[in-house]
Amino acid sequence: MQCQECGKRPATLHYTKIINGEKMEFHLCEVCAKEKGEQMAGMEAGFSIHNLLSGLLNLDGQFAEGQPARSASSSEGLRCKTCGLTYSQFSKIGRFGCSDCYKAFAERLDPLFRRVHGHTTHRGKVPERTGGKLRIRREIERLKQELSARIQKEEFEEAARLRDRIRELQAKLDS
Amino acid sequence: MSLQRFTQDALSEWMRGKGPRSDIVISSRVRLARNLSGLPFPMLATSSQSSDIVRRVEEALRSDNRPAALDKAELIRMDDLSDLEKRVLVEKHLISPHLAEESRHGAVVLSPNEAVSIMINEEDHIRIQCLFPGLQPQEAWKLADELDDWFERRLTYAFSETTGYLTSCPTNVGTGIRASVMVHLPALAMTQQINRLFPAITQVGLAVRGIYGEGSEALGNLYQVSNQVTLGQREEDIIEKLTGVVRQMIQHEHSARSRLREISLTKLEDRVHRSYGILSHARVLSSKEAMERLSDVRLGIDMGLISGVSANVMNELMVLTQPGFLQTRAKQRLDAEERDIRRAGMIREYLSMKREGQ
Ligand SMILES: [Zn+2]
Ligand SMILES: [Zn+2]
């Protein structure tokens, strides 16, 4: 299969993306993929982020520990107060500067996540030590689903047991 | 220096054992991307913040009751390695080119058998990688999950209830998992069926790429299949889907092999033995030709057409004939022409050695 961009080199990258709700297929050679700035699964170093960034940002020393970055000027749009990255810089380099960027750019991220992943909410693993309450909430959700299934099947004894368990967990959550 | 252990042998110890479906599946890998809370991602971290991250991981590793998989694991700093040593680790897929070339205060924690490699200050603060021979993504996930839990008891991760594990690149966010399986598909390539198979794989949200090509080719008919989606799906479901798709690929490759045997056995035998002959006698071999011939011979071994050489030898030669390894062996820098001569020499020597002894 030839690369759909250049039509010359063999396509070695094959993937789909959801664009405006439609599934699009891509078959690209490595060169064209790089040019398009595609960040592929398993493709570790796409392009030199550090070089690109140093041109884009002049952050030297700005992220010195404990020192707040320059405050956002409204004309520049969204900016992460913690690391100083702006949304437009983020969209150019495709990388967040720090974990607070997720909060700073939150209003713009759902469409991006939907495009890349087809989803916007995490459903996987929760950290054991620090994810305590979330773990409990997940468990409650799961039990509630099971509860309504039992009720539908008229298995009321089991349903009552589940309801008690949910109450227990709810109390734990509220304490 | 114990680093030698990691740069001398082409085959990691974990690869010497035979994994399930190893006639087609070379290896399974699971990588988890994690970041420490309260520190900028490596791209924006200052030098002191980056070295602090290495120190914190080192400290965690010094604590008691390390998991068995990390017993006697070593932390190796990129700054302590020569370019060639780094290159060899890249060729063995133990570290990424990005960690080798572009990281600041980059480091890797390697277990003695090389089944675990934990990259520090790559694109994310921590990338836990577990590698298993053959088709074992589930086992690789279980181990990565366990190591992740162990680290999380000692380090606080950047995690959001809605978005999951926060990563430098939005393509990794959520689970931070990248599960991949490396497969050898010569019969599907020979019968031109591979082009029809790939679109079907991408349909279900997985990505396929050729590996080992300098540039754009899938040399040696080796491909890597991996998950694309990291957000909104559970790790177990991701692993299950990947495993299911790879199983189907294996089936297709098997039936392509049987068809080849039925309709053109003589041609196939001629092809694999011809390649075996060239590998055994050639004086100059480009890496492209070497990979193609090694793939043929590997197919011949797996189909019982060639005997007296183990499939492991082929795996090993695929790594040993990479530029970094050749230069490490030669203990000097080599230009492309020199490398082609040394490559042929190394393959000849290796095959005659393996035929006589062991
Ligand atoms: Zn192209
Ligand atoms: Zn930020």
Automatic annotation (TrEMBL), chain A:
Q: Which GO terms describe its molecular function?
A: cadmium ion binding; cobalt ion binding; copper ion binding; kinase activity; zinc ion binding
Question: Pfam families, alphabetically?
Answer: UVR (PF02151)
Per the database record, which ranges form the UVR domain?
137-172
Q: Which InterPro entries match?
A: UVR_dom, UVR_dom_sf, YacH
> Which keywords accompany this UniProt record?
Coiled coil, Kinase, Transferase
Which regions form coiled coils?
133-172
* One BP annotation, GO: stress response to copper ion
PANTHER family linked: PROTEIN-ARGININE KINASE ACTIVATOR PROTEIN
Q: Give the protein's recorded name.
A: Protein arginine kinase activator
From TrEMBL, chain B:
Q: Among its keywords, does the record have Secreted? A: no
Q: Where is the signal peptide?
A: none
Q: Which residues form the Phosphagen kinase C-terminal domain?
A: 24-256
The Gene Ontology biological process terms listed for this entry are: phosphocreatine biosynthetic process
Q: Where is ATP bound in this sequence?
A: 27-31, 93, 127, 178-182, 209-214
Q: Where is this motif: RDXXRA motif of the pArg binding pocket involved in allosteric regulation?
A: 339-344
Top-level taxon in the UniProt lineage: Bacteria
Q: Which GO terms describe its cellular component?
A: extracellular space
Q: What is its EC number?
A: 2.7.14.1
Molecular-function GO terms, alphabetical: ATP binding; creatine kinase activity; protein arginine kinase activity
One Pfam family here: ATP-gua_Ptrans
For this protein, the record's InterPro entries field holds: Arg_Kinase, ATP-guanido_PTrfase, ATP-guanido_PTrfase_AS, ATP-guanido_PTrfase_cat, Gln_synth/guanido_kin_cat_dom
Q: What controls its activity?
A: Appears to be allosterically activated by the binding of pArg-containing polypeptides to the pArg-binding pocket localized in the C-terminal domain of McsB.
What are the UniProt keywords, alphabetically?
Allosteric enzyme, ATP-binding, Kinase, Nucleotide-binding, Transferase
Which reaction is the catalytic activity of this chain?
A: L-arginyl-[protein] + ATP = N(omega)-phospho-L-arginyl-[protein] + ADP + H(+)
Q: Which family does it belong to?
A: Belongs to the ATP:guanido phosphotransferase family.
Summary of the function given for this chain in its UniProt record: Catalyzes the specific phosphorylation of arginine residues in proteins.
PANTHER family per record: ARGININE KINASE 1-RELATED (PTHR11547:SF38), ARGININE OR CREATINE KINASE (PTHR11547)
NCBIfam families (alphabetical): PRK01059.1-4, PRK01059.1-5
Name listed for the protein in its UniProt record: Protein-arginine kinase
Instruction: Identify the species of origin.
Output: Melghirimyces profundicolus
Q: Which gene encodes it?
A: mcsB
